[in-house]
Each structure stands twice: as C-alpha cells, then as structure tokens.
Amino acid sequence: MAADLDMVNLLVLAGATLAIPILSFVASFLLWPSALIKIYYWYWRRTLGLQVRYADCGGYRFCYSYRGKPGFRPSILMLHGFSAHKDTWLTMVKYLPKHLHILCVDMPGHEGTTRTNSEDYSIQGQVKRIHQFVENVRLNRKPFHLVGTSMGGNVAGVYAASFPSEICSITLICPAGIRYPCETKFDNHLQDLEHSHYTLSIPLIPSTPEEMEDMLRLCSHVRFKIPHQILQGLVDVRLPHNDFYQEVFMEILGENSRYALQENLQLITAPLQVIWGKQDQVVDVSGAVVVAEALPGCRVDLLENCGHSVVMERPRRTAKLIMEFIISLGTTSGTIKKLRAL
Question: What does the UniProt entry say about where the protein is found (predicted)?
Fold first, then answer.
C-alpha cells in the first residue's frame, strides 16, 4: 500500500513537473506568440549551427549569422527581401552542405542592423552599406557567391555590377528592379496605391492578422494553414517597424531604385543564375526573360507551382539548384585550367 502511495505521489509529482513547461508553452502561444516566434528562430539557428555576430563599422552596426569557414568552395553571402531578416534563409540553409562558409546579413535598417535615414534605403544606398559590411568581415579577400531575393535580388545585381572583381557568381531569386513585360496582382495594388496618393494600406506592410494572411497569400502559391495566434504573433513582431518599412518601400519605388537592376544588367560580368517561381504574384516571372535577353549566357531555373517566396516554398530545390550552379562553375573553371596547362 505504501509503495502504491509512493507511486501515486511520484506520478502526481511527475505530472506536475511536466505540466509546468506545457502550461508555459500554451500561455506563450496564447498570450505572447511573438516571443514564441523569436524562440523558434533561435532554435533553428542553433540546430543548423548558425551563430549570430555583429560587425561595427564606424558607428554603424551590421547583424549577421554565419556558419563554416572559407574553404575550397566560394563563400556565400545572402541578401533577404523587403521587411524580412537574416532568418529568412533558415529553411534553405538546412539543405546546404555544412562545410560551406555562409553569411546571412540583416539588410540596412532591418532587424539588428543600424537604422539611419532614407539615403541608406535606396538600392544604391543599400549596395554601399553591404559593401561596407563585406569589407569589414573581409569577405572579399577572394571572390564570393552572392545570393539575393526580391529587393535583395535588386541589391545583389547592382552590387555585382558595381564591384565585379569581388563576385565569382551570383544567384537572383525573383529579383525586383526590372520592367516586367507582364503585370501581376501586386502591380494592380501598386496602381491603386499611386492613384490614392499612397493613402491606401500597402499589401506588404500588414497591421492586422487578416492583412498578414492576405500578404502571405500574395507572396506564396503554396497555401499554408497558419493559426490565428501565429498570424497575430507575426504582426506583433512587425508592427513596431511599419513606419520604417513604409519609408523603405517608398525609397525602393523611387525613380533611382525601381528599375536599378535592369539598368545595371549589362555591367554584370560574373556568371549569373536566375531562379523564379512561375506563379509569382509580386514580380512577374517574365522578368526572367528580360534578364536572359540582357545576359544570354545566364542560367534560368523556373519552378512550377511556386510563388514569390521561393526560399520558403521550395527550400530543398532552391538549395540544390544553387549548389548545382556553383559546382558547374567550378568544373568549368577546372577544365579551362587543364586546357591551359596542355
């Protein structure tokens, strides 16, 4: 009987012990979903072996995550899109070889990188800041592979055109900065915004869970079922920064930034790869044709049943395509060296 009571007491104690973290998790989910989202990113960075570091450049601070050390393959620098952050790349980094030297930086003003003024948020301004980061961490000691998506694709392309000796190759994922032959759903939103003198809400800057859900539907062809609490958490994380996002949005739509990539395409000398979701509703896939016509030797990979959020929708496929591209260039380079030696 005493043993039975001891067992009951043990089970009660164990149940109470387990109940504490479970209740804490439920409370966090219901009351502080934004905190849960931050923990999620922290967990995945840790799981994938990414470390967060800061680079200080004369009063300006960059926040970035990295994994690995420079080696045989080129280092890879990843530039995220508008209103995103370095953790955008986590789903894709999962499928990249662990020995690669990878850096994911918060773009100017975003997340942990210093927020200054509108001059830094134009495409040219962002290019200058990213170059400052590259020099600070000495990434340009040898040419590196540059990856950019959406706004980050616009920046990456202009960077490659501005600093050709630093880039060995480049991947643009659904890049902004092009005059697209075909319009998208987002283009229609932009026209409505311009007609309203920007008094209407911007689809890429949600302030309610409903607007967040609309933005995710706009950016993704794959439909994810996201609980209302998580949507609320995503809004809570972004809401304090919405004024900043609006400032950046207006800057990258300015006449000097809106078509910056297209205006610099002819200056890109590094081998270039374009990856695009065929169902992109933000920047139309016809932009791939514009890039291919300007740079006939580029590689174009179009993904079926995929929208604008390629990294989130097709992370494994995207990682595979990037690695195939980088390896193919290494093979070509090795063949050329052998031929020269004969």
Answer: Late endosome membrane; Lysosome membrane; Mitochondrion membrane
